[in-house]
Automatic annotation (TrEMBL):
Residues 9-95 form the Replication factor A C-terminal domain. This is DDIAS protein. GO terms for cellular component: cytoplasm; nucleus. It comes from Tychaedon coryphoeus (Karoo scrub-robin). One of its GO terms (biological process) is negative regulation of intrinsic apoptotic signaling pathway in response to DNA damage. The gene is Ddias_1. InterPro entries: DDIAS, NA-bd_OB-fold, Rep_factor-A_C.
Amino acid sequence: MNSVQGLLAASVISIQNSCFIYPACQNCFSRLILDSRRFNCLKCGCTGEAKDASYRYRLSLKIADTNDLFDITVFGSCLDPFFGVTAENLQRYIQDFNQLSGEANTESSTRALVQAVETCFIGKRFIFGV
């Protein structure tokens, strides 16, 4: 699953969604279902307390090389250097910010994060392992 078949030099055209972090199962990396107290993995059946859920990066991009457009998704810790922190820590910072600001609506922090990610990635050229 982690083997690279080839390298692709391409520029990022757009960010495909605003959800860059997701609660991930430690066993199979699938998205966890969270409620206020518990998490559950529908794929492997792993369960636990919501406060113990781990988070992982998931960045969906539209990229272009000289000939073609591609939709790709980049997962995991390879994004740590770009964000400057692990997905776990970024999720904690976002939660702390929302609590300190007293906002029930997380729209402003999400909008700020999306803008920062767009600034860092759109128009930049990267080498992607595919």
